[in-house]
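Please produce the structure of this protein holding 2-acetamido-2-deoxy-beta-D-glucopyranose.
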Amino acid sequence: MVSKISVVALLAVAALAVPAPSTSSDRYVWTVSGYINVCTAATCYYVFNVTGEAGPSGAPSFDASGCSGNSLQYAFKSCATLGIDVPGDVTTDEKSLGNRANVFVKLAYKKDGVAYTVTGNETTPNGKDPRVFNIYPDAISAVPDKV
Ligand SMILES: *[C@@H]1O[C@H](CO)[C@@H](O)[C@H](O)[C@H]1NC(C)=O
Ligand SMILES: *[C@@H]1O[C@H](CO)[C@@H](O)[C@H](O)[C@H]1NC(C)=O
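Below is the modeled complex.
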């Protein structure tokens, strides 16, 4: 049973944990690879892989591939394959911005009775040549895990 006070404390720690450390090289980052985003008049279709090193608040490293979807799904969708050492999921979505897209990645994991959600996004050009770019997660939430 997690008390209300410890949840508030966790949220405070979690909120402080994500902002960048002093140098950019040790900033918590996820790496997208093989990103393509191809659009027709009506919709854009994307696919990519994304990996993350271990991060703040006990965020586990992960390796997700086959993350795909389209600009009209309006919901986060799980990647096809996920390697992660704790119960968790990596889901993605994107919003079309004309010749660019806003790519969203969400890491959810459970640890020590707490369910965490870490989210990040990056705006990147459309294209069918696979590309690599970084996403710097900017939000984390922590709530007691329902048992
Ligand atoms: C994406 O991940 C899959 C499965 O691990 C791999 O076969 C593929 O080569 C990866 N693509 C890129 C661009 O890294
Ligand atoms: C997208 O990420 C930026 C930081 O890169 C952040 O300021 C912004 O709030 C994020 N947008 C959404 C909708 O989460």
